[in-house]
C-alpha cells in the first residue's frame, strides 16, 4: 500500500492537522495568545456551522434572607422556622444550612436542617439543630435575624435508611456559537512557482506574512466577534460570524484612575478566582495600559510578595508569573486589545474551560488560476472553520477601566 497525503487525510486526519497546528504555534505566538492556547487544547470536531454546547453551571452556595425574622421560641421538638429568602432554588430537602452571625450558647454556628421549600412563596422551612437558650424563660429559641443576612448551604444529611435524596435540579445552560470561515489567499506567478519548486503548503516569506495576518484576524474575532448569521446579496449565501469570548465571560471587575492600588487589585483577584470552584491557575491577557499599571504596581514594596520575576513558558509563550493569595496568574501583553480599543482592559481566562470547536481544521489548497483562464498565477488558499467557547463562564473575568464619577 502506498501512503499518500490523500490516504493519510482519510484514515488519520489528526496526523496532518496536528503537524500543521504545531507549525502554526511556532509562528509569532506572542501576538495571538488566545488562538495560540486554543491550538494546544483538544479541538472538538463538529459537522455544523452552528455549535450547541452546555455552559457548566452550579447551584449557588449562598443567598440572602429577604425579610426580618422575629425571635422565635422553640416550643415543640422538631419545630420549624419559616424564612423568606431571595433564591430558595439553591436549597434542597435534607440539606443543612448556616446563617451568618447566628450562634448557639457555646459560640458555635447555629445549624439548621432543611425540611421544606416553597418556591412560589420564596420561603424555606428550617429546623434548628442547636438553638440558643432564651434568657427570659430558659427555653430554646432562634434569635432575631435581620433582612439581608447571608444564609449558606452546607452538606446534605441523610438518614440511616435513606437510599435516595432530592434530585439535583440545576442543569447546564444551553448556549450556541457559530463557526466562522477564516480564509487567506496567497498568489505567485506561475513562472516564479515553477522556478522555486514551491507548490502547496510551505512556509515561504509571503505565506508566513499571510498566515500571521490571518491569525491576527482570527484572534480579534475569537476575542470580540459578534455571533450572527446574515445573507450576502452578492454571493447569494449565508455568512456566519463567530461570537467572541470577551462577551462570554461571566464576571467583570472594574478599576478607575490612572493607577491600580493594592486594594483594587486584591478585589479584582478575589472576584476572578473565587466562586464556583474554578481553577487556581489562569491567564491574564492585557492591553498596554493595563500591563503598564500592573508593572508600576508591582514595583512597590508592598506588592513584591505578589509578583515573581520568574518567566514561565506555557503553550509556546513566555509569561510573567503573578502569585496572589487567591491563585496564580500567567500575565501576557496583547496588542490586539490595543487595536480593538481595550488598551486599559484585560481578560482573565481559565484554559481548562476554553474549548475550540472545529468544522474544518487549518488546511492549504493550491489553485491553478492559469488553467482556469483567470490569471497566470497559482494560488494557495488557507482555510479554517472554527469557533471558541467558554464552557464555565464564571471561571473567566473581564477587567475594565471605568471613568470615575464626578
Topology at a glance:
Layout: H1 5-11, H2 13-24, H3 33-40, E1 44-45, E2 50-55, E3 62-64, E4 72-73, E5 81-84, E6 95-103, E7 109-118, E8 123-128, E9 132-133, E10 140-142, E11 150-156, E12 173-178, E13 180-189, H4 190-196, H5 205-224, E14 228-232, E15 237-241, H6 245-248, E16 251-256, H7 262-273, E17 281-286, H8 288-297, E18 307-314, E19 317-323, E20 328-333, H9 335-339, E21 346-349, E22 354-368, E23 377-390, E24 397-402
Parallel strand pairs: 1-22, 16-24, 17-20
Antiparallel strand pairs: 2-12, 3-11, 4-10, 5-8, 6-7, 6-11, 7-8, 9-10, 13-23, 14-15, 17-21, 18-19, 19-20, 21-24, 22-23
Helix pairs in contact: 1-2
Question: Largest sheet, if any?
Answer: 7 strands, mixed
Overall shape = elongated
Mean pLDDT: 80
Low-confidence stretches: 1-17, 190-195, 197-201, 301-305
Class derived from helix and strand content: alpha+beta
How much helix, percentage-wise, in residues? 10-25%
Q: In what order do the strands lie side by side in the largest sheet?
A: 16-24-21-17-20-19-18
What does this structure look like?
- The longest helix has 20 residues, at about 205-225.
- A hairpin with an 8-residue loop joins β22 and β23 (about 375-390).
- The strands form six sheets. A seven-stranded mixed beta sheet has the order 16-24-21-17-20-19-18. Strands 3-11-6-7-8-5 form a six-stranded antiparallel beta sheet, with no helix packed on it.
- The protein has helices at about 5-10, 15-25, 35-40, 190-195, 205-225, 245-250, 260-275, 290-295, 335-340; strands at about 45, 50-55, 60-65, 70-75, 80-85, 95-105, 110-120, 125-130, 130-135, 140, 150-155, 175-180, 180-190, 230, 235-240, 250-255, 280-285, 305-315, 315-325, 330-335, 345-350, 355-370, 375-390, 395-400.
- The protein has two domains: about 1-60 and about 170-405, phage-related protein like fold (Alpha-Beta Complex), CATH 3.90.1690; about 60-155, Elongation Factor Tu (Ef-tu), domain 3 (Beta Barrel), CATH 2.40.30.
- It is about 20% helix and about 35% strand.
- The radius of gyration is 29 Å and the shape is elongated.
- With about 400 residues, it is α+β, with helices and mostly antiparallel strands.
Amino acid at each position: 500500500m502506498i501512503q499518500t497525503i490523500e490516504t493519510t487525510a482519510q484514515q488519520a486526519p489528526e496526523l496532518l492537522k496536528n503537524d500543521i497546528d504545531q507549525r502554526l504555534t511556532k509562528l509569532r505566538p506572542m501576538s495571538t495568545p488566545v488562538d495560540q492556547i486554543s491550538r494546544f487544547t483538544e479541538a472538538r470536531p463538529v459537522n455544523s456551522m452552528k455549535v450547541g454546547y452546555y455552559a457548566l453551571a452550579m447551584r449557588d452556595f449562598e443567598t440572602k434572607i429577604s425579610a426580618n425574622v422575629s425571635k422565635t421560641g422553640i416550643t415543640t421538638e422538631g419545630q420549624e422556622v419559616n424564612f423568606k429568602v431571595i433564591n430558595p432554588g439553591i436549597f434542597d430537602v435534607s440539606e443543612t444550612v448556616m446563617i451568618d452571625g447566628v450562634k448557639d450558647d457555646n459560640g458555635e454556628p447555629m445549624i439548621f436542617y432543611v425540611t421544606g421549600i416553597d418556591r412560589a412563596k420564596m420561603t424555606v422551612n428550617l429546623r434548628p439543630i442547636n438553638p440558643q437558650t432564651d434568657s427570659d424563660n430558659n427555653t430554646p429559641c432562634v434569635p432575631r435575624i435581620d433582612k439581608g443576612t447571608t444564609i449558606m448551604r452546607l452538606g446534605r444529611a441523610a438518614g440511616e435508611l435513606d437510599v435516595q435524596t432530592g434530585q439535583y435540579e440545576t442543569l447546564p445552560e444551553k448556549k450556541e456559537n457559530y463557526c466562522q470561515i477564516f480564509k487567506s489567499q496567497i498568489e505567485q506567478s506561475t513562472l516564479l512557482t515553477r522556478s522555486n519548486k514551491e507548490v502547496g503548503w510551505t512556509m515561504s516569506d509571503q505565506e508566513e506574512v499571510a498566515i500571521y495576518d490571518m491569525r491576527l484576524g482570527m484572534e480579534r474575532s475569537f476575542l470580540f466577534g459578534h455571533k450572527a448569521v446574515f445573507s450576502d446579496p452578492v454571493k447569494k449565501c449565508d455568512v456566519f460570524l463567530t461570537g467572541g469570548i470577551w462577551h462570554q465571560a461571566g464576571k467583570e471587575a472594574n478599576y478607575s484612575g490612572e493607577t491600580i492600588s493594592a486594594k483594587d487589585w486584591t478585589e479584582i483577584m478575589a472576584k476572578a478566582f473565587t466562586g464556583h470552584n474554578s481553577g487556581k491557575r489562569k491567564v491574564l491577557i492585557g492591553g498596554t495600559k493595563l500591563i503598564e499599571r500592573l508593572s508600576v504596581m508591582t514595583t512597590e514594596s508592598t506588592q513584591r510578595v505578589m509578583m515573581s520575576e520568574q518567566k514561565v513558558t506555557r503553550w509556546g509563550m513566555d509569561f510573567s508569573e503573578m502569585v496572589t493569595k487567591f491563585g496564580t496568574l500567567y500575565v501576557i501583553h496583547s496588542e490586539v486589545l490595543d487595536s480593538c480599543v481595550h488598551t486599559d482592559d484585560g481578560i482573565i481566562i481559565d484554559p481548562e474551560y476554553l474549548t475550540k470547536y472545529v468544522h474544518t481544521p487549518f488546511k492549504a489548497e493550491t489553485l491553478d488560476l492559469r488553467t482556469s483562464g483567470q490569471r497566470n498565477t497559482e494560488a494557495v488558499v488557507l482555510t479554517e472553520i472554527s469557533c471558541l467557547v467558554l464552557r464555565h463562564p464564571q471561571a473567566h473575568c473581564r477587567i475594565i477601566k471605568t471613568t470615575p464619577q464626578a
